[in-house]
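Hi both,

Apologies for the delay on this - the queue was longer than expected. I finally got the S-adenosylmethionine-bound model through. Below you'll find the protein sequence and the ligand SMILES exactly as submitted, and right after that the structure tokens for the full complex including the ligand.
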Amino acid sequence: MSWNRDYEKSGRIWGENPSELAKAAVQYLKKNKKDKENYTLLDIGCGYGRDAFYLSDNLKCDVLGIDVSEKAIEIAMNTVIKTKKHNIMFQSIAFSSLGGDKYDIVFASNVYQILHLQERDAFRNAAKKALRPEGLLFLSALSTRDPEHYGKGEQIAGETNSFKDEKYLHFCTREEFMQDFGFLDIQELYEQQYTEPRSNGETHHHVSWILIGAVS
Ligand SMILES: C[S@@+](CC[C@H](N)C(=O)[O-])C[C@H]1O[C@@H](n2cnc3c(N)ncnc32)[C@H](O)[C@@H]1O
């Protein structure tokens, strides 16, 4: 499995710092004075847990991170042992294998863009099923204005905004989010430009969407 190989080779691929989505989530919850409760938070496609730890350091929450990569989960679990953070758990499972548990927050940073058409559909259903009434979804995904990857590689037949270069990538538009996440009351939807450091010394320039939606 290719993500597992990437983690085997590079470990903490995006370094120790949190993603743009994790920073946006903490900012949103604090601004809306929703940072008082003890949230249950599901981080889908959590990788080696950089966001799970940041969210747990900045919010009162119990976090479950899931990822299909066993290597990513091994790195994350080693950090749990080292830091003795008993409010964070990780499991090596796909979102399609989630049980019936409900969460106050479903969080997914840079996962949606790597999912094929049918998987994106399955992701939305999984997120919907995992959210409590009034729960919040925090999601980031590459924009069609992403300068690093958009239009590179082979265009996927029948999908205007999906390309396969090293990996399959899907790029999102506002219209697509409004249509596909219509089951949520969208609180915020904006594009963000940022640079992303890589463990191999490269710096990537990205434009991503940040979506914050509430179960209505
Ligand atoms: C681009 S990485 C982002 C990792 C992490 N969210 C971060 O920002 O550090 C995408 C992650 O999604 C995971 N993933 C892919 N398909 C998945 C699935 N069906 N269920 C759970 N995780 C998945 C991959 O293994 C990978 O770790």
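Main takeaway for now: Strands lie at 39-44, 61-66, 88-91, 103-109, 131-142, 154-155, 162-164, 168-170, 184-197, 203-215.

I'll put the files on the shared drive as well.

H.
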